[in-house]
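Q: Methenyltetrahydrofolate cyclohydrolase, please. Structure only.
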Amino acid sequence: MEELNMPIILNGKETAQKYNDNLKNSINELVQKGNRQPKLVVIQVGANPASSLYIRNKKRACERVGILFDHIIFDEDVKETKVVETIKELNKNNNVDGILVQLPLPKTINEDFVINTISPEKDADGFCPVTLGNVILNKSEIYPGTPKGIILLLKEYNVDVEGKNVVVIGRSNIVGKPISIMLTNMSATVTVCHSKTKNLKDITKNADILIVA
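A: Structure for Methenyltetrahydrofolate cyclohydrolase:
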């Protein structure tokens, strides 16, 4: 990539459409060869409006590319054991390829315990400890969605991160931490900034690549 004096913002909309088209074509080819459609199951506890919106968006995304979508809704007062039992049944279901538990969960349910119940092979969000451990070891076939999308976007723009100073703003388990690890595995020099970081302005000025996570 040529050196640029002015910063550029990478727009993911066109890249996302390209990958969606490729995925749709791949699924169509699989089905035409006699294979079943892949299937995602989303589990929701309660009726949080933001969670419901995210799930509707996930459903639309699945429909666009030909992935079957199931939505299991539990009342907010559901017992943790019921949710865990449901996940275990889905783990054993050979017609289910991905399982996703929509967060947040009610305070009466242990999020970590529930997420840990998902089989690593069906961990659609990429949040379970086995998945994240493999990400750290650079041996994972599954990655958290947003960090993986960032990597694909950088590759689409032919941005070589090796040896580059990358500043990641945010240290969440969902985006900030995974993307910093993934970039480190790609030989970038990564600085993670957060709410307690001093001289944030000076740090970001020296970044070759800035990721707001």
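A: Brief note, in case it's useful. The radius of gyration is 19 Å.
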